[in-house]
Amino acid sequence: MMAQEQYKEYIQRAEEKILLFLRTFEDIQENMDFGKIPEAQARLRDTIGDFFEVAPSALAALEPPEELSEFGAAFSAALTHLNNSCKGFLEGVPGPNFGAAFVNSRFSLCRGLDVLYNQRAHLPTLQAYWLLPEAESNRDALETRADGVDGPVGMIHHPQTQEHADYSLYVPEYYTPDKNWPLIVCLHGGYGRGDDYIWTWLRPAKSKGYLLLSPKSIGPTWSVLQPSVDSRSIRIMFDEVCETYAVDRARVYLSGLSDGGTYTYLLGLDQAELFAGIAPIAGELSPATDGMLRQKLGLDVLIHVIHGVHDFIFPVETVRSSNELLEHIGYNVKYTELPDWSHAYTYNINEKLVLPWFESLEPKVQS
Fold first, then answer.
1. Who's near 110: CB < 8 A, 6+ residues apart?
2. Is pLDDT above 60 for 312?
3. Is 367 inside a domain boundary?
4. 92 with 33, same domain?
5. Are residues 90 and 229 in the same domain?
6. Which pLDDT value is given to residue 84?
7. Which member of 108, 176, 211, 229 has the greatest number of CB atoms within 10 A?
8. Whole-number Å distance between alpha carbons of 30 and 338
């Protein structure tokens, strides 16, 4: 009995350390300044110390209760993924090649998140990470599966087929087909993936009851010069989701980061009938929109453009000019310029800017 208690106590202490790591690393990723990589590395190193290095051996020395043997194996795997993520970021050499180290670190992080999320019933401390603060008091209800639901709920990853690229889908655990649910299509940045970017949206979706569809681009990034390549794939994914789940077609929204923001313009204007609102973040108008704008495609779609003053990929001056063009043509554009932001991940932006704007919109009138 003593050994089992020691095991549970260690897991609880490990949870607290992992939660601190996740929150710190998230903040670093959302406020990434590639000119200050050493400072970010020092901050993460100070936060986590040697925890990931010593945790596997410390865990191996403890005997899990028999009923937690499967959990123990999964938790060890999660620690390996998080260690790979942390190590990859800390060992990345600042300079032109740091981007690749950062992307690989991010993918390892998301693999670890996926394992931990599937084991969250045994990780009460970590459950707070996947909820907005105001939803924590309602945690039990948000984890209670409704009766009569045949399809899978939670985080679901669909493989690539001949018809579409792979995609990740989040369905709230308390989903019921008795009502229609709003859905957010969220598009990753260049060289990203759906099973990466979806985590930036999980907290608000779980807390407030949204389905998430996070597609992977067919190529390394979105087909911004040939929009039909990815738009067909996304449309097939969307139709699959609607065939399986009760989606509120009047409350479907679209947002994306970086190249995903650029593609948000393209998909949102070309298939405006699908979306009650679109929110491109840190993107720019592609030349492929020229014909769309001349035809005034999607003129009634509501657009919220969000951009950082210090964006080093798509200069803010270009975005200001394109907003003026859209408004001149007659598009309904809301523009939020972030004075302290550059070009990075979007957790708080999604939670505090994009979702409140989506929720302020009237449901789209269905033709």
1. 193, 195, 196, 199
2. yes
3. no
4. yes
5. no
6. 97
7. 211
8. 13
Q: How far is it, in rounded angstroms, from Cα 16 to Cα 25? A: 14
Question: Quick one: pLDDT at residue 34?
Answer: 87
Judge whether 133 lies within some domain.
no
Same structural domain, 62 and 157: no
CA distances, 212 to each of 118, 186, 282 (Å): 17, 7, 20
DSSP of 52-112:
HHHHHHHHHTS---GGGHHHHHHHHHHHHHHHHHHHHHHHPPSSTTHHHHHHHHHHHHHHH
Mean of pLDDT values over 288-309 = 96
pTM of the full predicted structure?
0.96
Same domain for 112 and 151? no
* Whether 82 and 180 share a structural domain: no
Structure tokens at 48: 């986590």
For the chain, the domain total comes to 2
Instruction: Identify the CA nearest to 241 among candidates 298, 301, 184, 162.
Output: 184
> Rounded to 5 degrees, what are φ and ψ at 353?
-120, -55
Q: Are residues 150 and 110 in the same domain?
A: no
Cα–Cα distance, 261 to 272 (Å, whole number): 15
Q: Determine phi and psi for 36, rounding to 5 degrees.
A: -130, 40
Within this chain, do residues 13 and 102 fall inside the same structural domain, yes or no?
Answer: yes
- For the residues 303-325, what does the mean pLDDT come to? 97
As a whole number of angstroms, the distance between CA 278 and CA 280 comes to 7
Which residue, 96, 128, 160, sits at the end of a domain? 128
Domain assignment of residue 141, yes or no:
no
Parallel, antiparallel or unpaired: strands 302-308 and 332-338: parallel
Q: Which two tokens stand for residue 255?
A: 């947002």
245 assigned to some structural domain: yes
Q: How far apart are CA 266 and CA 297, in angstroms?
A: 10
* Pairwise CA distance, residues 97 & 34, whole Å: 11
Token pair 């789940």 is at which residue? 245
120 and 176 inside one domain: no
